[in-house]
Amino acid sequence: MEIAQSSQSISEVPTHIAIIMDGNGRWATRRSMSRLKGHEQGAKAVREAVKGCRELGVPYLTLFAFSSENWNRPEEEVNHLMGLFKFFIKRELKELKNNGVRVNFIGNLKRLPQDIQDLANVALEETRDNRGLVLTIALSYGAQAEIISAVQSLAEKVKAGELQPEEITEHLFSKSLDTGDIPDPDLIIRTSGEKRLSNFLLWQSAYAELVFQDVLWPDFTKRHLEDAIDDYFGRNRRFGAISG
Ligand code: FPP
Fold this sequence. Notes:
The chain has 244 residues and is of the alpha/beta class. It contains seven helices and six strands, in the order βααβαβαβααββα. A six-stranded parallel β-sheet has the order 3-4-2-1-5-6, with helices on both faces. α2 runs parallel beside α3 and α3 runs parallel beside α4. The longest helix is centred in the middle third of the chain and has 24 residues. 35% of the residues are buried.
């Protein structure tokens, strides 16, 4: 990707981009449409983001599709979103598979309807050997619950005498999270102008660059992805050290 860079700026396309897809409801309300329409349009923008990352050579993309808090939305909206996830996986699987995308999920999938859990497993299986973009979909995901679950699994191992407390390092802890086999995000994008992480990848975002964009998610295109990457290129990442 040809983008001008200063000597201290980042020179590589980010390895891992994570996106908080926000603003579907507002997009619909502004058009006097039901919020459900906003989510449908949002699903189209998901295709844009996946295609954009593939074209730009980004190896990992993670999308925050449904948070643990989203279960508190009206039943009709939750059901509609579940239908959209099902439709998306069913309709896109073949194309994702043929384009080398490996599909991955994080979150408390056990809370999802059984048919979506089954479909998610099919998507995992069918794309397991792909070596292109790793697309992680966060479903029923909350970072605090993810951290507690990792703590519990490590505590169980200590209790069983399989692990010493002092053997618990940042590395081991990272490996115990849902994201254990993918790198931490370099760039987190949030759309819709909100400026918070909302319980998304809290441990993994320790050194991530954060880019907040005013665009509402259904209007997100490859250009917004490129703008965010441009922004990222302009940043000077020091990971706590001083610049050389
Ligand atoms: C936030 O907008 C968006 C969501 C809670 C759902 C995200 C879902 C999609 C983009 C649909 C399809 C996804 C996949 C992976 C196929 P909001 O409803 O909170 O918007 P608002 O803040 O304007 O109300």
